[in-house]
Batch of 2 targets.
Target 1
Amino acid sequence: MIKLENVSKAYRVDGRDIPALAGVSLSITAGSVFGIIGHSGAGKSTLIRLINLLERPTGGRILLDGDDVTELNASALRGLRQQVGMIFQHFNLLGSKTIGENVAFPLKIAGTLNKAQITQRVDELLALVGLSDHRDKYPAQLSGGQKQRVGIARALANRPKVLLCDEATSALDPQTTQSVLQLLLDINKQLGLTIVLITHEMDVIRTICDRVAVIDGGLIVEEGPVTQVFLHPKHPTTRRFVFEAEHIDENKQYDDYKHVEGKIVRLTFIGNSTYQPILGSVARDCAVDFSILAGRIERIKDTPCGQLTLALSGRDVDAALARFSAEGIDVEVLR
Ligand SMILES: Nc1ncnc2c1ncn2[C@@H]1O[C@H](COP(=O)(O)OP(=O)(O)OP(=O)(O)O)[C@@H](O)[C@H]1O
């Protein structure tokens, strides 16, 4: 469990304090994938770098399994860095060393394995990330996606409990992004590793995160399970991220509905109800007609979900809405 309690951070520049985080509190459950999303300058990098003390907080506490990391002495801090691996947007590989040597590097620094054990561990790690055939190549000979796989292998070398991902897929094309995210998800499942990632892309959050925090101006403005935040975004910043990702123009949509008759409702289906033929049977039973104004069906991590905006008219619209609710569908009356 990672806990941030009222953490603040200001950078001192030319004798002046530049605030970056203003009282952030978060709880990240062990074994989960936790995403932090925000625009440029929101404080994402600062926040993630506090977890392994690449930056020191100005105030508040950061607890890793109950221990306050800000109180660790130098040797305990080295231990912490081994428990918390990190990968970066631009990979940060050593260009003059081979792939195998890059992955071996943190093992040599830790100094707990002999040469043969290091070779064996590097083999295991390269197999895990699908790069066994590239051991003797140099970073410049690999694609961006392959370089990030090396970054992941290196970050996992000392069997950390936590992996921090600092915009790890931002330099990759969409297809490569998906394959790297899939690898992170496999590792999360296989090793039970906690993953904390920062991103400015809602798609990254949707693909692999269990929970998400939205950061704006150094504050967490919304936090919750990804399904909840995605389907019912509340804060204007969150709404902007979600609507951009979904190509929804909220204002235009409401304009379009001006000429539509009937009661306008939004139904949200999560899990199995997404694929049930509920709409037709409720319409028949309650003698209502519906027209579909907008809709999306998608997957948020492993959970199928859908959202439909309908105009309902006919004999018993209220009974239809009650039936939807009884079937476990979230009903919002928009007009
Ligand atoms: N080393 C530093 N010295 C001074 N100010 C800094 C430093 N690092 C970050 N800042 C400032 O702190 C604020 C938050 O920056 P941070 O890099 O954490 O945001 P971010 O959300 O990660 O943005 P980006 O995606 O652009 O990196 C910004 O105002 C930034 O200018």
Note: The pocket of adenosine-5'-triphosphate is lined by residues 11, 13, 18, 20, 38, 40-46 (CB under 6 Å).
Target 2
Amino acid sequence: MNAWRAVAGRPLGAICLAWLGLVVLACAGADLIAPHHPQEQDLSSVYSGPTWAHWLGTDQLGRDILSRVLHGGRVSLLVVGQALAAYLVLGCAAGVLAGYRRGLLDRVVLRLGDLALSMPAVVILLVVLAIFPHDESAAMITLGALSAAGLARVVRASTVAVREEPFVAAARVAGLSTFRILGRHVLPSVIGPVISLVALVAGSALLVEASLGFLGLGVQPPEPSWGGLIAEASQAIYRQPWLLVPSGGVVALTAVACAVLGDVLRDATDDRTSREPLSWRRMRTQVTRRPGEPPDEAAVLSVRGLSVRLADGTALVDDVAFDVHPGTALGLVGESGCGKTMTVSAVLRLLPPGAVVEAAEVRFAGQDLLSLDERGMSRVRGGGIGYIAQDPVASLDPLFTVGDQLTEAVRHHNRGATRAEVRRRVVDLLEAVHLPDPPGVMAEYPHQLSGGMAQRVAIARALAGEPRVLIADEPTTALDVTVQAEILDLLRELRDRTGMALILVTHDWGVVADTCDTAVVMYAGQVVEQTSVQRVFEAPRHPYTEALLAADPNAAVPGTRLPVLPGSVPAPGHWPDGCRFAPRCAFATAECAGPVAMTAEPMRGSYRCVHPRHGTTTGARR
Ligand SMILES: Nc1ncnc2c1ncn2[C@@H]1O[C@H](COP(=O)(O)OP(=O)(O)OP(=O)(O)O)[C@@H](O)[C@H]1O
């Protein structure tokens, strides 16, 4: 449904949809709207051009062309519909079953598909029409069945990919029947390419139908069909050339509309599938500079007044500022949905389509990132600032080995390197992240890796460009405790060895305590506290920081109930005026309803609160 909405939102898609809708409705309602019976003759007015009585003129027997086009369209569209039904049913069923079951069925479907694609369709149609004379339905169903081989391949390929997804495995484990899994989990994910192909095949089928009618092999006169009308018009081409315009025009426009719609649908569904939270594909983010504080020149990355807005104006991140110094680690902490990922995505300028970045400064190693164009930013990404995505396995391409993916990254950053040098560097990277047997790991595919190994490979890839800042988004989520500790050790070791700075996006205070020097606490798109890690644990100033620390399971005292933070982070667009934490805060007063600025404490940090804490009780409302 979203794909159709996306198509309707594009001018070309909307025009094609409108034309096809109009043609289908007009032909379906031909009995009601056609001004004349399609075979009603008026010999006193043959070959007339357009008149008030006959809007599109008349033919050699004085029959109304508009009425014949409408009725003829019904016949033509019906047989095209039959071809599409055969195409869809056979193509989807064969593709899904072959891709899901694999084995012998898969091989049989592939071989039959090869056979169907290698047969000349026109010859087969002529044979069918020789067996069933003038039976256009038989010919068009055969055409649909022959073309289904192409669809079956596309559906099979998508099904094979989806079949390996964890959610399909989970459905299998949950005991769902094959048909239910296919219907609920597999088919919806292949629907995009399918509808795009159906639109393209509809255009071709329409042209084949018109050709059959033109050759006199289809529906026989006096019953009209679009192909038959073109044949009649071509016989009178010298006497009344206009006759070709309505019949030829409607066929041409409808076939073109189908083809264009197919293209637009493909683009629309492509866009939809690439709507992950952070994708390297989506790169043209609009950037606006606004006045604000100057950057910290000693920092390797200095951010001031950074905001992110969606196209509809909804703010996701609001006036964020922080500094990261070489060789240090900064922890960006907060509950889910506070804007941590959006903040680092905005620094890298990798945001959802239509999102806008506003900032006073984003200064990296003395370079003003706000003034860089897309080409400049792509040099910074990976080269200057490395990024490790939230889900390491998903961030690795399942179709390529670890070696291929690291080689690609190393080549990207070392243009002139020889094959041997690139391989040496890949092995070095794998050794640097302590993966045993680098040549063996290079030959493996992502699904063969454990979570910890995948995270190490993702770190190795991020290190390929020798970044000066490494951003790791939830680097230890979904890893078991031992592997978590190993990954944090590795990050610390890399930081100490290379002098790069780390930004760890996390909601785990354990990660902050183990690895970071500075904590930046975010709530509802804003920074609410920023201080050293030592101080944040000893004396948090913001009630939110205090409540978040109190709810930390790492600090739980056995035998006592772990305090929870009641309520949830307000969604973007629903942030309260004044202090955004006030509705959940035990210390909120009327003062908190007004604007709350950051208060800086020299040498200690800063916080955004009118009732700062002095570190004893939890700040959450009970
Ligand atoms: N593509 C998007 N379009 C619109 N809003 C989005 C999009 N991605 C995220 N958001 C919203 O932006 C807000 C901040 O999201 P963000 O991912 O930065 O949070 P987070 O603090 O990193 O949380 P998490 O730890 O769950 O990743 C959330 O409310 C989220 O719903």
Note: The chain has three domains: 2-273, 289-516, 538-622.
